[in-house]
């Protein structure tokens, strides 16, 4: 009987340890943030990738009219402005393939992921489709000129799009628009509920 009790105690101890490890890996992160680029920041030494968005790379160039500009740096500057020195709180949503924490973060009562897409300084990347559609319609941020989506730019020759959207966007954007309309119809108007 004593062996069974000891075995049960060990199982309970191991289960609690496993739950504790899992819980600590999913903990929320809060503190002062350092902004790396338009979709990555560091809180308490933990690198966090804003989930559901994709911002231009720091050295990415875009075009507004006849002029090129450093849209990656502009995107970073906008995130710095949104954070504004406030305490940042991030909900740990897992990790990406590079080991960074995927997070939904807020500062000053504002969700940073959503605000970056709404402002046009990041594009939807698995979330925030309705916000991207509003930014495009405005046009706001990147949508005021020509740019390659960050994913296409990372995979391409790092040139500036000539027609305002880039080659991948010409193929992908109609698919995203159709998907957003379908989701909006099914969910009664909120395209992000199903994304």
From TrEMBL:
Q: Offer one Pfam family short name for this entry.
A: SNase
Stored SMART domains: SNc
Query: Where do the TNase-like domain residues begin and end?
Result: 35-145
Q: Which domain of life is it from?
A: Bacteria
Name listed for the protein in its UniProt record: Thermonuclease family protein
**Originating organism:** Chelativorans composti
| Organism lineage string | Bacteria, Pseudomonadati, Pseudomonadota, Alphaproteobacteria, Hyphomicrobiales
């Amino acid at each position: 009987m004593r062996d069974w009790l000891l075995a049960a105690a060990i199982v309970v101890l191991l289960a609690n340890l496993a739950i504790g490890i899992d819980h600590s890996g999913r903990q929320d992160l809060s503190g002062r943030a350092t902004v790396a680029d338009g979709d990555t920041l560091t809180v308490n030494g933990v690198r966090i990738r804003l989930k559901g968005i994709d911002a231009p790379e720091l050295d990415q160039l875009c075009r507004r009219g006849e002029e090129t500009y450093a849209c990656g740096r502009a995107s970073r500057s906008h995130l710095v402005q949104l954070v504004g020195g406030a305490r940042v709180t991030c909900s740990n949503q897992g990790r990406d393939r590079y080991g960074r924490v995927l997070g939904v973060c807020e500062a000053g009562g504002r969700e940073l992921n959503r605000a970056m897409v709404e402002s046009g300084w990041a594009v939807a990347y698995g979330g925030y489709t309705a916000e991207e559609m509003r930014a495009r319609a405005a046009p706001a941020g990147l949508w005021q000129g020509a740019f390659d989506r960050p994913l296409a730019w990372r995979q391409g020759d790092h040139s500036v799009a000539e027609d305002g959207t880039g080659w991948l966007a010409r193929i992908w954007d109609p698919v995203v628009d159709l998907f957003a309309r379908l989701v909006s119809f099914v969910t009664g108007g909120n395209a992000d509920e199903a994304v």
